[in-house]
Design a protein that fits this description.
The protein is 40% helix and 17% strand. The radius of gyration is 19 Å and the shape is globular.
Length: 303
């Protein structure tokens, strides 16, 4: 992963592959996006009662349908994943794509992922418990993707002679883009990440201003820098990825609005801005022509 200015997209896994799904991934490559990601959830928000497909099979199909486009998750979490089985899936996916996979990974939240696998009366993990699992999950996954055989037992996860041969196409392993804003997650990003992901400050989405959002994100980047300094790492080694759609304002309402938004955030130090593929009649509804113009022309306005 390199430091530059890039545009990528998120394609929600809501369409049957042979009934509108495949063409979106092909079109994302044609438009010149750096990467196309998908969400890794069991169900998500207002889409819960409609079609929602698995991230790993979707990305496998997308890898077969494209040639150059990077692919990945934004983001995978320990809420319903185990590092041993996830590692096997990722190595296979990296092989099928010939080394085009980025793993976006985070601690997870309070949504359906946190409750679907819980028994009656069983409470979902607290924020502290999610952070505790994440602290163990990421280092173990790192080992599993680097080493041919791993044995490790911790408070939450065990691997008993877990074999992962031949390993990733990308060496020493496929890149991690760690989603984090708190100190423990930022520490993991500094130690294990090739990239860092943020959606901004969620407290500002409904009532904050764009200016407040920029200030909050600037603070997040500063804390990432401090975490890197603490681990002896240069923060410029990490890609900085902004997933849009969760900050105040409507940067995708017009081409000019997006160029202004992107310029401001690239100047903060982001190397990649990710926009949602339009979904009619949803929070991600957008004019397709404006979206495609953003994909093909916006970066040239910022050079």
């Amino acid at each position: 992963m390199t430091s530059s200015r890039r545009l990528s997209t998120v394609i929600l896994p809501i369409r049957r592959w042979h009934d509108g799904g495949r063409p979106l991934w092909v079109r994302a490559e044609e438009l010149g996006f750096h990467a196309a990601y998908t969400y890794d959830h069991l169900a998500w928000r207002t889409f819960r009662d409609g079609p929602w497909f698995g991230a790993v099979p979707t990305l496998t199909a997308a890898a077969a349908a494209t040639e150059r486009l990077r692919l990945g998750t934004l983001v995978t979490s320990p809420n319903f994943r185990h590092p041993v089985t996830l590692a096997k899936d990722l190595i296979t996916l990296d092989d099928v794509s010939d080394g085009r996979i980025t793993l976006g990974i985070g601690a997870g939240g309070n949504g359906f992922d946190a409750t679907t696998l819980r028994g009656s009366g069983e409470e979902p993990w607290t924020p502290r418990e999610r952070a505790d699992h994440f602290d163990e999950f990421v280092p173990l996954l790192d080992r599993l993707l680097r080493e041919p055989s791993v044995t490790q037992e911790g408070p939450f996860y065990a691997a008993n002679e877990a074999r992962n041969i031949p390993g990733c196409v990308q060496r020493p392993r496929l890149p991690f883009a760690v989603a984090a804003t708190g100190p423990r997650g930022l520490g993991l990003a500094a130690r294990y990440g090739q990239g860092w992901v943020t959606t901004g400050d969620p407290k500002l989405f409904g009532t904050g201003s764009p200016e407040e959002s920029v200030a909050a994100i600037r603070g997040q980047i500063a804390r990432l820098g401090a975490a890197c300094e603490e681990t002896g790492r240069d923060v410029t080694e990490l890609d900085k990825i902004l997933l849009t759609g969760f900050t105040p304002g409507r940067p995708l309402q017009s081409f000019d609005a997006f160029v202004d938004f992107a310029g401001t955030h690239f100047d903060l130090g982001f190397t990649e801005i990710v926009v949602h593929w339009p979904v009619p009649d949803s929070d991600f509804a957008q004019d397709q022509d404006v979206f495609e113009r953003i994909a093909t022309e916006a970066l040239s306005q910022l050079s």
